[in-house]
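tool_log.txt
---
The assistant was asked to compare two proteins side by side. It first ran the structure predictor on the initial sequence, then on the second. Raw inputs and outputs are pasted verbatim so the downstream comparison step can read them without reformatting.
(1)
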Amino acid sequence: MWSSTTINVLLAIILLVGVLGFIPTHSISIRLSKQILAEFLIISFFFFFIKNIWLKLFCLWNVFSVIAHILKTNNYDKLTYISLMALFSYLVFYQIVYSQKFNAYTIINCIAIIALFQALFMLLHSFNLSLFFKPRFQDTMPVVGFLDNTNISGAFIAMTMPLFYRKKWCFWLPLMVYVLFKTNCLAAIISITIATIFYLWHIKKIFILPILAVALFYCLNFENPVKFTTHSVRAKTWINLVSHIIPKSPVFGIGLGQYRYLWRGIVKNKPEMAEYIQMPAHNEYVQTAIEAGLPALAFILMYILSLFYKFNKKSYIQLILFTSIISIAINSAGMFTFHLTLALIPITLLALYEKEADYGQRI
């Protein structure tokens, strides 16, 4: 576990890196030198403090990708720096959650309470009611709760719903299911369905699966039909990116945070492709391969596999957390789960799971 001194050192490193990156300089060589120095401070953090080898390699490769981008373009975009700092901050948060002594059961309950408040506000929106959080789009009342669009809301509900499979919380499941289908978010619905099948299989209640299948079929086709148009556009986006963009820079990618500029260039120079290239890519795996290269994608996939390898089916709390992780992993293939304000929720769930799997503490 980390001491208070270690945490203070980490916070000092974060402050130093942040200051280095944003101090204005007139000389481009000095600017690039100080920002590369910031990268090496981040490398030092990853090398000494991140425990999971695959996360360590993933983050280091992102840094190498940024350095390769600097050397290739002789320029350092602030969006790239902010993206790297966000990644750095998320990993600090992950490691703190993993390493500190606290009642993790309390944290899981807090996440469930946040999800419950979100679901209650989504319920109000489903009846065209709003108390404090009004959606951005006022023509029709989208079911978004206190988030800003239905995809984000659906992803949030899908990743937190397994926390309500516990005995004292299952009373709220009908509400969670109802608001999830009201978001009309296919990626979220598919992800939690597959995760729930995994959960039911392990608790040996397979008899519920036909009921789940009938309910899913009914909701998708009659109660609240899911529109497949946007998902076909996303599929074409992924095909175009994989076939045309990734092969151009498969090792280091185009640079962290550079997808926005790639998209703007396509819209400006190739308008015929713009219809099938979305911003963002709505796929964490594809966008990772584009921005940081195929090795970064391989490292993150190995990280997910390492979590599966650590799974202990005899631990109920691991089952709950891993069910959430399955939902997160699948949803990330059709959504930008870690590019959002809710990114700390999946990061917390991942860190709690790995902590429980490594230390076997009772949560």
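(2)
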Amino acid sequence: MLMKIMIIADSWPSLNIELRDLIYRLNRDGKEVICVLPYKKSLTADQIKETGLNFYFINNSNKIKSYLNYIMAYKVIKPDKVILLLNKHTITAGIAALICRVEHMSVIISSLNPLKPTKHIIQKIRNLYYKFIYKKILCQSDIMFFIYKDDYNLLAKWKVACKKRAVVLRSRGVDMNYIKKLPYPKTDLVFMSMPLLCNYGVKCYIEAAKLVRKIHPKVKFLLAGKFVENKKILSEQELDEACESGIIYYIEETNDIRPYLEVCSIFVQPNINQKEGHILEAHAAGRPILASNHPVNRSIMIDGYNGFILPVKEAEKWAAKILLLLDKQKLKTNMGNYSYELCRKWHDRNNIVNIIYDKLT
């Protein structure tokens, strides 16, 4: 009889990005995988057919229905093992698993942090609720896979005594067969790229570019990604002015960043709340990295080894580090090589899939 594995996520993009390779490997090795998603709108009928996967869709129009439907799903599917991509959107699935006393549940954690400090009583109560439920789910899990180290560090802060069952992955991983190490270009180009640009980050990038180009006027600054205007931080007009004056060059969303990584010599990611962006691809390509002091970035890179971690609202510090790398070619080359080596050690998606697979089976 086939081992039946139930995988729960909050959306198809989330499942596809984080666990696609694992799911297909489990299927290849004779496991029956059922992907549980909260609503059918996340996939069209053609997409469902194209994936070749088994799906079970949950009606989560309200919390009570969500609890009841997840309980029903556990009873109908009767899985041998459950893998839950745990976040605040799938917490009802975790509670239902506790109610059903699911025996073999493992969790993959990308963010435990809706728990931001607040002075509002209602938000404080909500934070306490999330913290209490997270702790219950973690304590009942066979294995906990932490995508980022900052979430793992919360175990000690929350006094959760289950570190022996915890595995730190450090990132979602990158396909190193798709993104390969690239030679350095003959001329310097600084590159910032994220699927959804951070307004504070773009503002910092423009200000840093102005400072650097006063000393190195020939250095180009390239920006790529979707820009959503926030006039309080940075308006479309300000972005247009920076482009028209030649301070930066801007291209909108791109499906393939490899050609841009090939021509860049320094990769920067000044972000406040965006996830990984394209920082992993920059690692795989062998580029030195400047990144903001964000939990995700702290998990992915090593400050002073393969780049620098900097405060996002202090453009002068970003400019100083860019100038340092421009003036010290050997340092720039070494840091780029260290990015690649770090990627092979920590972020190769094949290795991450192997770690999860070996622990689960």
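---
observation on (2): DSSP finds 14 helices and 13 strands in the chain. The longest helix spans residues 121-139.
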